[in-house]
Design goal:
Layout lengths: L23 E2 L2 E6 L5 H10 L3 E4 L1 H9 L5 E2 H5 L14 H8 L5 H10 L6 E5 L3 H6 L4 H6 L4 H11 L5 E3 L5 H10 L3 E2 L1 H31 L10 E7 L9 E6 L11 E2 L7 H15 L4 E7 L2 E8 L2 H11 L1 H4 L2 E5 L5 H7 L6 E6 L6 H7 L8 E4 L11 E6 L2 E6 L11 E2 L7 H13 L8 E4 L4 E5 L5 H12 L7 E4 L7 H9 L3 E4 L6 H11 L2 E4 L8
Parallel strand pairs: 2-3, 2-5, 3-4, 5-6, 13-14, 14-15, 21-22, 22-23
Antiparallel strand pairs: 1-7, 8-9, 10-15, 11-12, 11-13, 16-17, 18-23, 19-20, 19-21
Length: 542
Amino acid sequence: MTAMKGLHDMSNTENSSPENSDPRMVSRALVTVSDKSGVVDFCQELVHLGVEILSTGGTAKTLREAGIPVRPVEDVTGFPEMMDGRIKTLHPRIHGGLLARRSVKGDLESCDEYGIPPIDLLVVNLYPFERTAASGASFSDTIEQIDIGGPAMVRAAAKNHLDVAVVVDPDSYPALIHELKETTGQLSAETRNQLALEAFRRTAAYDASISNWFGQQMDGPFPGTVTEQWHRVGDLRYGENPHQEAAWYQRNDGDSFSIAEAICHGGKELSYNNILDASAAIDCCRGLEGSAAVIVKHCLPCGASESTHLESAFDLALAGDPVSAFGGILALSGPLSVELAKKISTKDHFFEVIHAPSYEDGSIEAIREGAKWGQSCRILEGGFFGDDGGVPIEARAVPGAMLLQTKDVSIRGVDDYETVTDRIPTEEEWRDLLFGWRVLPHVKSNGILLAQNNAVTGVGAGQPSRVDAVHIAVRKAGEKATGSVLASDAFFPFPDGVEAAIEAGVTAVIQPGGSRRDPEVIEVANQAGIAMVFTGERHFRH
């Protein structure tokens, strides 16, 4: 959930109705929270302002231990908490206090007749269902974290925001207290509206997470319906092009596997294209082994390497295509040292974004103090490097529809693949073939990748013709094509692509196989004395 940056940051407050324009005094608050961060200080301030505090269970205990006077909810309802806390606030005297309209005579008369105390402020955060579900807890334990009373009260208070304020995020406490002090205990219509909006967003996200989780338990990874909520991370200067408006959002599901979770250590504001490219670079880097470096340009890996040391991985990745790397995005698999930072930040290099899981002391300063471009470079830390909890689901929108699929992750090895030529790959060729196969899912189809010494030497991507992709990869590699291996994301429909690779000096090929012309392709490889491996799986990326 995104915390409110300011209680008056409403985009459409001018549409508030005239009857909703007056401030409301806060005399009584109901506080019942799962996340007790900041609640003691918050309630102390409320008491100083003369606010009566109603509370339940663990929250009431926490407040009493801090010396804060609390009226237990059971004093209002006349019923104790029961059924292990399942029943405590589901009562007409609570919901009547939240729903009573101060301007409706009949509502106030009902409050008087039935002893219903009006509630002016509701402070609730919900049971941690999302966190529990993500932890892999048992079905029964996860079910118990489905909050019933909390969402019911939140919706009631938000509906009655004409008279009641509702707070669902501890990060909202400071701004709320500030306003109450400035106005002698009153909250404006703008604040109540904004709080209600945040409340409805929270219950929508909460219900969506429950629905999606339950659907996955019943239906598997692709449930009958998928409900998602996204919160705005921020506005962008523009989209892919300056004439396009843009903003970026993060999925509201508690999943930190996102570039939005990375810390940005200054530099220019991230652009739409920066975010796309950085995500692609980080994702590719995560799939490599050992010390790895990936350089991306226009969402394509123009350089990538695995090595025993991060510095050598960077050198090899840069050597893959130093021309294309200029102005690209660099992702590293390990902590960035001061020594490597100095090597990266020279006038001969230029990176729009640098990402690493962490930075040694002084390394960020070394980037800033290096070449002039280092002062504006976006330096990202963290994000994307946590355990994603299994095979993630990828989503792609098309007009009016959404496509979902499991992520293209290959966990197979040498024993799973078939050598179809007379010559089998050498140990070094196998190493490079498997490396190329790990990078290939990040190359747009038709995708061809050349590799040598655990590093990319040439890439041909996004071509309608596979043989054209081979020619581009070979041209990019130049002299480095000799002795390289080739990885193809799909089968060769004709022998011409393999013939072009052989002519360039490629010594081994890895490809899915499955073409009706496979025998012709294999024969060409045998005649040239190169090795060819069939994987039985393809890596299309449209």
